[in-house]
């Protein structure tokens, strides 16, 4: 029997046009725990509109996606060391006193997804690439440095100011040693750098159009081609669509790929522990994530036929 309480709404807050298998997964988890909670995806461009819903008495927990991961921080009552060091918040918890507390589980999802793929065979120091310098890049850098032992991380991004802001955030780490960040701005520079073990993409799935966007894509492509047959890993934080342009490019270059929905799946256990103080079976939830994505992609093929 479901447990009834005043709080029962879980929200995934993203921008207009976003999509997610998250509501179906979180509704399943709530039911398995005997909670009458429901999950809804919010397509809101203004983070203040997100906060209006988060402040309601029926708010049970929140996930924050692009483009709100950074802008929500000053609007919360408190954040923990992870959100503070990373400079981005993707999970909001309602405390017993009714305050809104932010944390970051993106880095855990990245680390756990990579470890599951490598079967914990990761050893030694590696270099990595982060493609993008927005809110999601913060969790990626932290996961690579704190979770996967990468001391040098190359940044590919179209906007120099965004890269400077990311570097400033990493320089301000208070609770973990800082990795060395290198802004890669040309193919010529990329050729002089060590091929990365990991590439983490943190940008939406779009076709590059501007000269700087095309240049970034070409730099990424060069790293992919140099990493052929080396059992390297590309992880894409974007999960809409499940198979992004960057994942397709990595597969064509024979890289191992990790889609974004699996990164989300590897965070669910921690998120529900924070919201409800309950344990969930992560293996069952990850299997459900895979099944839902396959069903959605199959239905699209049928609809297009």
UniProtKB/TrEMBL annotation:
GO terms for molecular function: shikimate 3-dehydrogenase (NADP+) activity. GO terms for biological process: chorismate biosynthetic process; shikimate metabolic process. This is Shikimate dehydrogenase substrate binding N-terminal domain-containing protein. InterPro entries: Aminoacid_DH-like_N_sf, NAD(P)-bd_dom_sf, Shikimate_DH-bd_N, Shikimate_DH_fam. It comes from the Eukaryota. Transmembrane segments: none annotated. Gene3D superfamilies: Leucine Dehydrogenase, chain A, domain 1, NAD(P)-binding Rossmann-like Domain. Residues 14-92 form the Shikimate dehydrogenase substrate binding N-terminal domain.
